[in-house]
Every structure is written in structure tokens, then in C-alpha cells.
Amino acid sequence: MIRVGPAVQSALARGEPVVALESTVLTHGLPRPDNLALGRRLEEIVRAGGAVPATVAVVAGELTVGIDDEAMQRLAERDAAKASLWNLASVVASGSDAGTTVATTLFAAARAGIAVFATGGLGGVHREAFDESADLTALARESVVTVCAGPKSVLDAAATLERLETSGVAVAGWRSEHLAGFLTPHTDLVVPTRCDDVEQVATLFHVQRDLGLPGGLVLSRPEPDGLEPAALAALLDAALADADTAGVRGKDVTPHLLRRLAERSDGATVHVNLRLLEGNAALAAEIAVAIARQRAFRAASTSPNEVPV
Ligand code: PSU
Ligand code: MN
Fold first, then answer.
1. Catalytic residue among 22, 43, 199, 223
2. Does any ligand 1 atom lie closer than 6 A to the CB of residue 5?
3. What count of other Cβ atoms lies within 10 Å of the Cβ of residue 214?
4. By mean pLDDT, which of 71-80, 161-170, 235-244 is the weakest?
5. Residues 249 and 139 in one domain
6. For 148-158, how does the pLDDT look when each residue is reduced to its tens digit (9 = 90+)?
7. Exactly one of 43, 142, 152, 278 is catalytic; which is it?
8. Beta carbons within 8 Å of 182's beta carbon, 6+ residues apart
9. In whole angstroms, what is the distance from residue 144 CA to residue 274 CA?
10. I want to staple 8 with a disulfide (CB 3.0 to 4.6 A). Which of 30, 66, 148, 304 is the partner?
11. Closest C-alpha among 152, 179, 129 to residue 22
12. Is the pLDDT of residue 307 over 80?
């Protein structure tokens, strides 16, 4: 029941690099009309990096890997649902349109055979007890490289990192020892691995697969354009208080907080969000190219552990 778009299908059949992109950022994460412009720009960035973009979404009840521009326009301009793993079946059954979260995008991308995924921020452990994103479950299950700017700023980053460790997800910092803070470049949390070039990332990915490890690899890329940690903390406290007063719960929490952060920062958080998404897509394309090259080399080589440098 997963539809794969024609460009993505032929790229995958030829072993060419493909980068999956999520769509909740279009339906819920960014204001109109920035969202549509961004969705198109991310695909362009991936193409410019030598890979084929595969934006994932539910289109009229069909989980689609590689939506066309018409579908992207509809998702960005009309109200659509937000599909995580726990409500995916009901969204599909009802025949509606939905943006896919990190969890659902990972699920669909892995089924289609895509190795690399670019997003903005990961879902994770919220500051309020018992709200934990299904993104964590999907990251533990799917053998995919997820390029992100760290856990979403509204989360408990330390708890999220612990949960990733518990479920066996490899976390690497892109040219950094620290976990990226989404809207701020760094948290003070140290990540287990540091990667300084894309070949290293591709090698880690292949070794994880060779070992038969079930989970994925999170590559945390700090966005240099990000906000000062103190400024972000003040904005967040205010936005969290707003959400509490408004009585927002469940899957509506994240979109609500993002909207309040944007309003309270005069759009600064949206600007950073756009920059980090673009940077992540560009890096993901490079990684997809490196993975495809190493895969071809390994297939031709008698010693599977040798990788090109
Ligand atoms: N971060 C953002 N904007 C977003 C999201 C994260 O800055 O729109 C989305 C991602 O798609 C992520 C989802 O997978 O929120 C997590 O939602 P939840 O916590 O309800 O699982
Ligand atoms: Mn939640």
C-alpha cells in the first residue's frame, strides 16, 4: 500500500542516491506561504547535490514516497492531518491528505529502500511527563541515516538523548562533539561519535547494516545561523506557558509551540528553521551520494570491509 513515485522508483532500481524528506514541516511546522517555497527548495537542493528527492506524504489516503508538485501544493495550501505511526492507518483508511512525521517518513522510506532522510528537528521526550514521540520508536526500528539539527527545541534534549541510547540508535555529531539544539547550534550534551566527513557517515551506516543492527543513525548537524541559547530558553519558557494556559495537549503541542515561538521572536525562529532544513538537505544529499558510491564499491570488491577514501 505504499506508492513510490516514478523518479524515485527508477533511481532506486539503478542504485542511485535518494533522499527522503518529511512533510509535517509543510503541513504543520511552517507558516504559509514559506512552507510551499521551502518544500520545493529542499527538493531542488537535494537535486543540486546529485540525489533524487523523495518527499513523503499521505495523498488522498495513499502513503506516497516521492509526491508530485501538485500534491505538495495541496498539502501546503490546505489544511491536512498530521500522520504519525499511531494514526497512520486511520488517516489512510479515511482517504485524507496528511503530512508525515519523522516516524512515518522513516517507516515509508525504509520500506521503499531509501537509506538517507533529511528533516529539521526530531520528535522525542517532551518536558511534560508521558508525552514521547513515536519518532523515537521509528528511529530504533529503521536502518536509515537521519540528518537533523537535533531534537526539536521544545523537548527535553537530555531525556531524548538517553532514550535514543536505550533503544540502540547511533547518534553522531556533524563536526561536533555536542548534540545540536535545533534552533540553537549546540546543547551541552556530548554525543557518542563525531563525524567530520560524509565518507565516515556512509561507513558507519554500512557497518551498522553489516552487523545487522536494527536501528538507525542520527546525524546531528548544528545550524551556525541559530539563536543564542539564553534567548531561546526565554522564548521557550514563554511559549510553554502559553500552551499550558491554552490547555493544548497531544499532537497539537508541537505546532502550537512552533507558532508561538515564531510570533514571540518576530519570525527569527522561522528563519533559523528554514536555514537548518536547507543545510540538512544539502548534507543528506552528499551522504546519499557517498553511501551509493561505497555500496557500488563494496559490491565490486572481494573484501567487503574495504571502503574508498
Ligand atoms: N520540528 C519542527 N517542526 C515540525 C516537527 C518537528 O520544527 O513540524 C514535526 C516533525 O515531523 C516531527 C513531529 O516528526 O513534529 C513530531 O511530532 P510528535 O511529537 O507529535 O510525534
Ligand atoms: Mn506526542
1. 22
2. no
3. 13
4. 235-244
5. yes
6. 999 998 899 99
7. 152
8. 120, 121, 149, 150, 151, 152, 153, 223, 226, 276
9. 23
10. 66
11. 152
12. no
* pLDDT of 306 above 60: no
Least Cα distance to 120 among 221, 250, 50 occurs for 221
- Domain extent at residue 67: 1-114
Cell of 199: 565518507
pTM of the model: 0.95
What's the structural domain count of the chain? Answer: 2
- Looking at 114, 132, 153, the residue that finishes a domain is 114
- pLDDT for residue 82: 96
Q: Is the CB of 28 under 6 A from ligand 1?
A: yes
Alpha helices in 14-145 (DSSP H): 24, 34-48, 69-77, 85-94, 102-112, 135-141
Give the β-pairing of 98-100 and 52-59.
antiparallel
- Alpha carbon of residue 221 to chain centroid: 11
Ligand 1 pocket: which of 28, 100, 182, 254 to mutate (most atoms <8 Å of CB)? Answer: 254
Cβ atoms within 10 Å, residue 268: 18
305 domain residue, yes or no: no
For residue 231, the domain's CATH number is 3.40.1790.10
251 flagged as catalytic = no
- Check pLDDT > 70 for residue 302: no
The distance of Cα 240 from the centroid of its chain, to the nearest Å, equals 23
Q: Say whether 22 is catalytic.
A: yes
